[in-house]
Amino acid sequence: MLELSDLTVGHRGRAVLRSINLRLESGQVAVLLGPNGSGKTTLIRTLLGHLPPLWGQVWLGRQPLREWSRVALARTLAYVPQAHQGLFAFTVEEVVLMGRTAHLGVFALPSQADRRIAQAALEQMGIPHLAEKPYTEVSGGERQLALLARALAQEAQVLVLDEPTSNLDFGNQLRVLAQLEALRDQGKAVFLSTHQPEHARRVADQVLLVGEGSVLGQGSPQTWLTPENLGRLYRVEPQHIEAYLGNFR
Ligand code: ADP
After folding, report:
1. Smallest Cα–Cα separation from 187: which of 228, 226, 159?
2. Which residues form the ABC transporter domain (predicted)?
3. What pTM does this model have?
4. How many angstroms separate the CA atoms of 77 and 107, rounded?
5. What is the pLDDT of residues 194-221, one digit of tens each?
6. Angle (CA) 77 83 85, round 5°
7. What pLDDT is stored for residue 101 in this prediction?
8. What are the pocket residues of ligand 1 if the criterion is a CB atom closer than 6 Å to any ligand atom?
9. What are the structural domains of the chain?
């Protein structure tokens, strides 16, 4: 579904991350890990088509990303940003209905079918009771679940998520992880960044460890998320990681 081929990403000609290769199929989760400033956001922005690759190619399906029309892209690729405070007091249901925009004609209003899809997405995320509440008045965790429901209502095959569990309490972190697994089981291709290796260990089919301008490791979480590799990635003594992650085995 999503393929990165010899991809170099960066800003205004300055490379941030070089030589990235990745194949993500339907029903798989890839997790991106790396210290602050290692280029995770830059890579995600390139995957979404917001930044042009400096070298190489992003493939979505059988076509390079740059050849996709905006509407076709919005029907195929959903982005779940971090849940910041919303600016306008849309209801949670209206936020989720925005996921239907790519499926509507110009100036068309959401149909009953769109509302049913939004309702089903809210139910899958376990928040149907929040439908009428202003998005600005629900908690950070509930906003993150609402943004996941919006991506679900978009009916896109590929989901890209920027640290979907950051700023969430423990219960909501587990809820979001369970929903990511459910989306994977429904055949979505899921690409996410996280600062939590234990989350990657739980949901990832493959991990991508990035730092110092390149991919430092790539493959199965069992192989790569070891105290030694994480220690090298985050510049921490492996025994500190062992002491922490040991509880998650
Ligand atoms: P991460 O998400 O892993 O914390 P970023 O992708 O945000 O890392 O940043 C990687 C590098 O790119 C940093 O050196 C940062 O200063 C630089 N950078 C980020 N955004 C921009 C921008 N808009 N213009 C120029 N450089 C940027």
Report:
1. 159
2. 2-237
3. 0.92
4. 22
5. 999 999 999 999 999 999 999 999 999 9
6. 135
7. 84
8. 11, 16, 34, 36-42
9. 2-248 (3.40.50.300)
- Taking the mean position of all CA atoms in its chain, how far away is CA 240? 28
Which of 17, 40, 41 best tests ligand 1's pocket when mutated (most atoms within 8 Å of CB)? 41
Count of residues making up the chain: 249
Alpha helix positions (H), the chain = 40-47, 70-76, 92-97, 112-124, 140-153, 170-185, 197-203, 221-224, 227-234, 238-245
* Element containing residue 7 per DSSP (H, E): strand 2-11
**DSSP characters over 87-119:** SS--BHHHHHHGGGGGGSPTTPPP-HHHHHHHH
Residues of the chain with pLDDT under 50: none
Out of 16, 51, 195, 216, mutate this one to test ligand 1's pocket (max ligand atoms within 8 Å of CB): namely 16
144: exposed, middle or buried (Cβ count in 10 Å: 0-12, 13-18, 19+):
buried
